[in-house]
Write a structure and sequence with these properties.
By secondary structure, this protein is α+β, with helices and mostly antiparallel strands. It has 5 helices and 14 strands. The chain is globular and about 45 Å long.
Length: 259
């Protein structure tokens, strides 16, 4: 079961690039972030003939997450538990039925800038809610993973220029500590389980020639529960997608599970 995460930075802007990548990479399941579309306006027609069913949790103009799957989806839920007043569309879950069942959580974690401030407070509170949800899912002992744009640079090696991010919400000590509290519940960072060292990124800004200079950061992650980590076969970052026509500023990150 090949599962990918991809912040597409606008589904309509990626109407050609996303289907092209899907045809080339052939993932079984994809979680998308920043679809920037309400559910009713999501352009299902661009996926015609590709074999994917689509579940969305959209929002007008910004945010929004989705799951595309070639495999059956069950028990789809939308929204991160813990705050009924939170109207931002950043979390979607579903159980994917392959040879075995895998619970998939697609997420778009808040950016948090400027920090300090209300947006940063929201980020940290959201991460605390995410940790609570992760603990609940761990107790079920079903294989599951949390995949998406975490807006967290876990360590300095995950940035080409770590000094440039010292005061940014993506790399502040409190952000990294909140990420570690989730990881330390027993999760495996799928990419780091297979690939070590600096120079591996999933985001390059559109400004200042960041892509051409490889001035990137790794903020798109797949965290695997112990049961899912036991199924891990391979992992990768499809970096070349960033060099395509009308690319997102993120690229797909994927895992292959024996499921």
């Amino acid at each position: 079961m090949k599962i990918a995460t991809f912040n597409i930075n606008g589904i309509k802007a990626r109407a050609e690039a996303l289907p092209a990548w899907l045809r080339a990479a052939e993932p079984d399941v994809v979680v998308l972030q920043e679809i920037k579309s309400v559910d009713e306006a999501f352009p299902h027609e661009i996926f015609d003939g590709l074999g994917y069913s689509i579940e969305t949790h959209g929002q007008k103009g910004f945010n929004g997450v989705a799951i595309l799957s070639k495999l059956p989806l069950e028990d789809v839920t939308r929204g991160l538990p813990g705050d009924d007043s939170d109207e931002q569309a950043r979390w979607i879950e579903a159980t994917v039925i392959g040879r075995s069942a895998v619970r998939i959580c697609g997420l778009y974690l808040p950016n948090g800038n400027p920090a300090p401030g209300p947006k940063y407070d929201y980020k940290l509170a959201w991460m605390a809610r995410m940790r609570d949800r992760a603990a609940t899912l761990l107790a079920s002992e079903m294989p599951f993973l949390m995949a998406g744009d975490y807006n967290v640079i876990p360590q300095d090696e995950d940035a080409a220029k770590p000094e440039a991010w010292r005061e940014d919400a993506l790399a502040l000590p409190e952000s990294r500590a909140a990420f570690r509290r989730i990881l330390n519940l027993g999760f495996t960072d799928a990419f780091r389980a297979r690939v070590q060292g600096p120079g591996h990124y999933s985001f390059w800004d559109y400004q200042a020639g960041a892509w051409q200079k490889n001035n990137g950061i790794r903020i798109d992650h797949l965290l695997l529960s112990p049961q899912a980590a036991d199924l891990l076969r391979d992992v990768g970052i499809d970096k070349d997608v960033r060099a395509g026509e009308k690319p997102s500023d993120h690229v797909p990150v994927w895992v292959d599970l024996d499921a």
